[in-house]
Amino acid sequence: MQDPDGIDINTKIFNSVAEVFQKAQGSYAGHRKHIAVLKKIQSKAVEQGYEDAFNFWFDKLVTKILPLKKNEIIGDRIVKLVAAFIASLERELILAKKQNYKLTNDEEGIFSRFVDQFIRHVLRGVESPDKNVRFRVLQLLAVIMDNIGEIDESLFNLLILSLNKRIYDREPTVRIQAVFCLTKFQDEEQTEHLTELSDNEENFEATRTLVASIQNDPSAEVRRAAMLNLINDNNTRPYILERARDVNIVNRRLVYSRILKSMGRKCFDDIEPHIFDQLIEWGLEDRELSVRNACKRLIAHDWLNALDGDLIELLEKLDVSRSSVCVKAIEALFQSRPDILSKIKFPESIWKDFTVEIAFLFRAIYLYCLDNNITEMLEENFPEASKLSEHLNHYILLRYHHNDISNDSQSHFDYNTLEFIIEQLSIAAERYDYSDEVGRRSMLTVVRNMLALTTLSEPLIKIGIRVMKSLSINEKDFVTMAIEIINDIRDDDIEKQEQDEKIKSKKINRRNETSVNEEDENGTHNDEVNEDEEDDNISSFHSAVENLVQGNGNVSESDIINNLPPEKEASSATIVLCLTRSSYMLELVNTPLTENILIASLMDTLITPAVRNTAPNIRELGVKNLGLCCLLDVKLAIDNMYILGMCVSKGNASLKYIALQVIVDIFSVHGNTVVDGEGKVDSISLHKIFYKVLKNNGLPECQVIAAEGLCKLFLADVFTDDDLFETLVLSYFSPINSSNEALVQAFAFCIPVYCFSHPAHQQRMSRTAADILLRLCVLWDDLQSSVIPEVDREAMLKPNIIFQQLLFWTDPRNLVNQTGSTKKDTVQLTFLIDVLKIYAQIEKKEIKKMIITNINAIFLSSEQDYSTLKELLEYSDDIAENDNLDNVSKNALDKLRNNLNSLIEEINERSEAQTKDENNTANDQYSSILGNSFNKSSNDTIEHAADITDGNSTELTKTTVNILAVDNTTEQSNSRKRTRSEAEQIDTSKNLENMSIQDTSAVAKNVSFVLPDEKSDAMSIDEEDKDSESFSEVC
User: What percent of the chain is predicted at pLDDT more than 70?
Assistant: First the structure.
């Protein structure tokens, strides 16, 4: 059909749409006008029955921009045009429905048909091999997804299928656009059971896919897109917030600057408290400054502003009495908002009515001002030491002497609140200014009275001991006061027991008095008997003492001691209280045990009996105190090492844990002086103890403390046993320990630090790494071939990953404080040689392939030892000749051999050049020596002649004339013939030169005789070049 001008309408539609696209690609400015033109063209085409023609040419022109690269702005402009056109069509439909406007030309059907055919057309390019086409297709879908209205089920299924494929595309840019598309298909009301696999629940299929991407996608940009577009509710929030530990800096920062900021006040209510604390801790302790600043900004500005600047309410939301990160959070707030400090005041009226938040704020502000030398704030807001001691004593009385306080004073306090307030005041008191002696004595009295309370909680005992240490004149004074408190508590308990016994005996006597009348005669007889027995005992005691004094008695001391009444012992609860105080005291003592008699007496009266006690809690505290004393005296540590080892071997889990800590600390302080000697424990026995603990996965906490302790001792070179170190590394890779996250994390940090800290440490890893690899390969093979269904075959790393890790740990380039000798280091080469030696012991071809394909990760240098490189080449050649390798393994091995051959050839060339330089230098030195010796002999001859002719002048003149004449004659006859003596002298010089040349050639021969034949090397290199060419053809 043609219009009146004779132009085909189909062509006219094409020209019109093409003109719009042509103009739209130049700028965004005229897009609104272009959209109006497109809508007009579409409406006219529909009126004239050319709807399909318009759709065809529209699709055709959009296809033109699909191959454009991501950075082509023209493509982005056309994509925006298409998105705006579809959005405009949908907006008109929605507006018409709201105004109850009757659609005359079936606009809704036209729109739905256009969208349906456009999406189906574009989806044809989603499987294109061209990454640009796939990117543009998904980009188009992402921008139109909000405005496509309702689509039929078949198109929905096609979209979901295509997007689920593209979410695993090899190009990150394509995956990002797929994430944007899937975001539109999320259902905010149904996100439960995200981890469950179900084919029927399609309503949250998109959400599940995004969760998988946010956790597993290797691209940081894709994870970021999924994190920012995943719906944020109670079910998906944990997956979003765990990005605070992402390896990418930007992703970690966005958790604080976007996710938590957008939540506002909901953060405090919707996030679980322990997760909330972790987020703050991770943010404030992040290694990147930008992440730390984002977290500080969130706390100091976003959260504080969301709470209308109410600092007390912010502390309530942070739950200062429970949270362990509030100190860091409030410090970050002060650093970011120093203006807040000047607005905080502590009026006199508030000191008796502290709340949890005010007490914490007092402690935080005081320590912050003290650390940052803000003296004005300290002088204005904080009282003198004597006043502070009064306030502290007030709350101690409220908590522990509440019977003496009126009910009105303690009505709004509970025990936990009071203990927290006391703790905060005590923390500030530890670092308070005690320049006033009155204030110091007042505080010391309050603290000593507090520590004497038997109901004092353990956190208050700990901080009370620390405050008393800061108040003490010296360490001896501190120990004296602490032990006095411990003895008073124990003596009070014994006295109380005696009083209780007296009360009981009185009650028994009163009961017996009621039966006296009934049994008068029997009672009288019994009393007489008892009185007689008591008189006999007293008289025998006095006579024994008199005989002992006079020296004529045969009574022994044991008899006297046996006659004495048994000494009372403190109760178990009191012993626990005393041991708790003594342990916190000993943690602060540095004086050797030999210089402190009080601690030695405490050992005899409290600690040693506690170690022998059968009650588990007393024994554990006793071992802890014993360990702290052993740190102060090496002899005591030697004497008790066997007991500590028995505690680890035979004790329960908590006793093992404490004993392991003690053993590690003893080795850290005293080193190996406590083992291997006369009267000492054998070090091998202790190594076996650590070995058994590492192998016992039933006690994961003990495994962790043993692993951390061993890593510290190996790092300090206290332990140097290769077998124990091998056990340590095997425990890291063992599948049995894969569920022990704390153990794996400790190893993942400590082992690289150990290997990279010193060349000797890396050499130890190199010596043991090959055997470690072999054992783990066998273990992995057994795990894969196991027929037990409960076995988790994915619990262990594959041998290739383990091999890569071992290569990384033995790479000399990773050493800290590198020197120029790093390139000469052969530690990694030695490890690879050991691996090739055990290669034949590996039976499974799959494992062999994993190892061979990773051998080129080794560091090679022409400065490395020649013989080591040659040995490595020999083993490589042996494997290439005798082992049946697949193509991939053969190519990897050939690459290594080629590199080794080129390095060896380079070393040979350098050696030959060096030999030539040495020969030339030797010849030059010999020539200069000959010249100097000839000149010296001539001068000596002349001087000798002068000495002889010291007679008369006539003879001297004659001799001189004769010498000159001889010289002239020699010069004249030099061209004709030589005298016999001259010829002999020349022959002697030639002989010396020949001898020198022979010596230098002998030196050259000694250097070069071990070098390989150049011809054979050249032939092998040519052969390897051919192999490398064939490899490149295969690739």
Answer: 79
